[in-house]
């Protein structure tokens, strides 16, 4: 009898790194099925995943807080009882792992992009920025998520972390060790196209990604061009911040081809999030031969080589640090880093990821029937 496997992820909502990893993994392991809490048809049209056997739990909602609860309940509920029919299951995200309760026989794996950070290391950060009248609701959500997430982790036979940074968080908060398998980068799609003269920000538009610092830097660098190619909950605020700046342009989310072309034609990318889990965008940039202005903390310490494939700023960068780095990274200097950046990105190729994931899955404890 053929071994049957399935990969579960919270939802296909935006074209982010975790979503790309999920689809790469399912496609890289023939015969493996997919299960998601829901799929946004605009971000992921049906024809794009027509080659996959996908269980869609249809737990969609536009309300972020309710979304977490609704998707968690969908995975934990009877709609995922079919998981008992599989020989192994790999869970990812923060909501999908609740479905492990329907797979008590073993061979359950968890790929950790990050712990739910609003419950753990960024708990105080979120509470301070949440409107005071709504904080009781956020505290209630934290109290609901944390014990259920930890119970799901306790039921996993094998933990996989996307970086040493996330591996450290698993040890710190859950007392569990993990095997590190870095995310896959499509090094064939992201290629050098031309030596453009604009800088590129690819981070989601959220507070902890610190895109506001980048915009402020370019306010004081009117001769330099910035393209912000993403979306997020802070999109309107950041657009207002950049209002009147002719050298700052927003594109919103782009399709895969548009994104590859934009990266391939940039001078460099700027990526300075707070304690990033891993950070696929910097590696995609390097795959296209484009250096990265990054920050010396989190996952970027595992990918970007300061002075060779980019320039690293202090862990708590200021606008002045950014201005200095942008000014220092001339077109000639960026071009001189091209080959080192391309070589570095090959360490994170899709083929390498699939090979390592297959080995970890095959080594997972056998299911008990």
Automatic annotation (TrEMBL):
It is an enzyme of class 2 (transferase). GO terms for molecular function: glycosyltransferase activity. The keyword Transferase applies. Pfam families: Glyco_transf_4 (PF13439), Glycos_transf_1 (PF00534). Keywords: Glycosyltransferase, Transferase. InterPro entries: Glyco_trans_1, Glyco_trans_4-like_N, Glycosyltransferase_grp1. Its EC number is 2.4.-.-. Residues 191-344 form the Glycosyl transferase family domain. The keyword Cell inner membrane does not apply. Residues 16-189 form the Glycosyltransferase subfamily 4-like N-terminal domain. PANTHER family: SULFOQUINOVOSYL TRANSFERASE SQD2 (PTHR45947). This is Glycosyltransferase.
């Amino acid at each position: 009898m053929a071994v049957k496997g399935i990969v579960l992820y919270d939802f296909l909502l935006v074209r982010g790194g975790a979503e790309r990893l999920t689809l790469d993994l399912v496609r890289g392991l023939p015969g493996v099925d997919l299960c998601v809490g829901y799929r946004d048809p605009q971000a992921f049209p049906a024809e794009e995943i027509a080659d996959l056997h996908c269980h869609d739990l249809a737990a969609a909602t536009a309300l972020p807080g309710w979304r977490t609860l609704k998707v968690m309940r969908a995975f934990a509920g009877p709609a995922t009882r079919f998981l008992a029919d599989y020989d192994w299951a790999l869970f990812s995200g923060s909501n999908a792992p609740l479905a492990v309760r329907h797979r008590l026989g073993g061979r359950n794996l968890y790929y950790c992009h990050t712990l739910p950070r609003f419950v753990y290391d960024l708990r105080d950060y979120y509470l301070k920025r949440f409107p005071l009248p709504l904080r009781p609701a956020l505290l209630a959500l934290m109290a609901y998520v944390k014990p259920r997430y930890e119970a799901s982790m306790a039921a996993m036979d094998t933990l996989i972390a996307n970086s040493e940074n996330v591996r450290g968080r698993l040890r710190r908060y859950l007392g569990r060790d993990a095997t590190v398998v870095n995310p896959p980068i499509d090094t064939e799609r992201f290629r050098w196209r031309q030596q453009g003269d604009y800088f590129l920000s690819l981070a989601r538009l959220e507070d902890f990604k610190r895109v506001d610092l980048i915009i402020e830097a370019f306010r004081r660098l009117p001769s330099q061009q910035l393209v912000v190619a993403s979306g997020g909950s802070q999109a309107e605020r950041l657009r207002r911040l950049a209002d009147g700046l002719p050298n700052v342009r927003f594109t919103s989310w782009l399709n895969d081809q548009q994104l590859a072309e934009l990266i391939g034609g940039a001078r460099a990318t700027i990526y300075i999030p707070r304690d990033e889990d891993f950070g696929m965008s910097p590696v995609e940039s390097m795959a296209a031969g484009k250096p990265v202005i990054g920050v010396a903390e989190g996952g970027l310490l595992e990918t970007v080589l300061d002075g060779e494939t980019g320039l690293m700023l202090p862990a708590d960068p200021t606008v002045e640090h950014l201005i200095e780095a942008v000014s220092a990274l001339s077109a000639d200097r960026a071009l001189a880093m091209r080959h080192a950046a391309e070589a570095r990105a090959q360490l994170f190729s899709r083929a390498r990821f699939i090979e390592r994931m297959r080995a970890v899955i095959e080594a997972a404890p056998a299911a008990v029937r």
